[in-house]
Design brief:
It is built from 7 helices and no strands. It has 155 residues and is an all-alpha fold.
Length: 155
């Protein structure tokens, strides 16, 4: 559509990209990981989906959703890692941080008791917490981890 002689301004068509001067909105860690990897490899959402055996809509949604309320399911994380050709731990960590959680891939030495009922309860109930509650739990865990770590040695 063109402007009329009256000088009325018209909105640009919806398919045009935003002007180069528009600030890029902040991306969450999972969005950054997906978009960076796609850019590096020249892949489309469809290619990542095909490689990971995921629906294209899942890849698109994870790459575009800024405020995740819960991490993707473990099977989705595994498939996305295959699709992006990155370690599962990278996707797991990015997904957790995108929801306000912190994920630690390594268990502390001497504390790997698979029968620990409290550990299982914490893991199972994480999806039941609100994002704000998860941030509080993450802050508590960080505090406890710092307390349990030996202080750095001064030279």
């Amino acid at each position: 559509m063109t402007s009329q002689a009256t000088g009325d301004k018209q909105d640009p068509p919806a398919e045009q990209p935003p002007p180069a001067t528009a600030p890029e909105p902040a991306l969450n860690p999972l969005q950054r990981l997906i978009q960076l990897r796609m850019r590096e490899r020249g892949w489309s959402y469809g290619e990542v989906a095909r490689r990971g055996e995921l629906p294209r809509s899942t890849v698109y949604t994870l790459a575009q959703t800024r405020n995740l309320t819960r991490p993707p399911r473990p099977a989705t994380i595994d498939a996305l890692a295959r699709g992006l050709d990155v370690p599962v731990s990278a996707v797991r960590t990015a997904a957790a941080e995108s929801t306000g959680l912190h994920y630690y891939d390594e268990a502390p030495v001497g504390r790997d008791d698979p029968g620990d009922r409290e550990r299982e309860l914490l893991i199972a109930s994480i999806d039941e917490l609100t994002p704000e509650d998860r941030r509080h739990v993450a802050a508590l865990v960080e505090s406890l981890r710092r307390r349990a770590s030996p202080p750095p040695e001064e030279h």
